[in-house]
Amino acid sequence: MRFVLPIDRADGYRSNYELLATADGTAVAVGEVESARKFPKSCPERHINRNGTFCMYWPGSDDLRVTDRASAEKWWATLVKFLRLQERADRLKRWPSLEQWAHGAAATYQLQAIEAANRLGPPYSSAVLQNRLTVTDCKNSRRVFLDRKWIYSVDVKRQSVVNKNARCICEPVNGARPKTMRTCADHADAAYVLALTLRLWDLEEQRFWLAQDSTACCQSMTTCPFYKKAA
After folding, report:
1. Could you read off the pLDDT of 25-46 as tens digits, one per residue?
2. How does pLDDT run across 84-99, given as a tens digit for each residue?
3. What is the chain written as a DSSP string?
4. Cα 156 from chain centroid?
């Protein structure tokens, strides 16, 4: 189906997008019409697939299938939000939202990291979504940082948190101090899985970019690893 979608901007102007949607069962893909393209045809940093369709969701988490009126409205709202993010990306030269899916297979580990973070509590869930957690490897241990501040380490060989007798990293409940990592629900396991998947996520992102063609950079995003090389 080919259609025009008008998007009203905050400055009072309206942008009209000529789009083409194709259905494969209940899965609906959409992208710009080639002759009326306003965005790059393909750009990982802008979540535009190689075939020109918009990467508005990740099937491992939410496949956004259209099966009824409610799901159709959700799909439509996601499309409108995506186009508005694209307009902001044009101005900022970076993706305007911190909460976005990782590239390629890295999204699998991102989802697993989110699930592990959910077990530790809302602060960690938000931190994963906003890419505020980082890891560094040091001999047989892996250190986890939140906003560049060390919070805990894991023993890679033993596949466990270092010093389970330390206080748990979760938030206090009703003002009470957290238990030790060893006795605080399944938080020791969740913390280890989080450290593991954060590292695998990072490695898979690196593999993704190594597989990309640097000469095809659209030069629209300063955050693209190829931006300076192609300039």
Report:
1. 999 999 999 999 999 999 999 9
2. 999 999 999 999 987 7
3. -EEEEEEE-TTS-EEEEEEEEEEETTEEEEEE-GGG--S-S-BGGGTB-TTSBB----TTT------SHHHHHHHHHHHHHHHHHHHHHHHHSS-S-S--PPSTTHHHHHHHHHHHHHHH-HHHHHHHHTT-EEEEEETTEEEEEETTEEEEEEETTTTEES-TTSBPSSPPBTTBPP-BTTTSTTHHHHHHHHHHHHHHHHHHHHHHHHTS-GGG--S--TTSTTHHHH-
4. 25
* Predicted TM-score (pTM) of this structure: 0.84
Domain ranges of the chain: 2-97, 106-209
Whether residue 79 is predicted with pLDDT greater than 90 in this model: the reply is yes
For residue 107, give both structure tokens: 């999204």
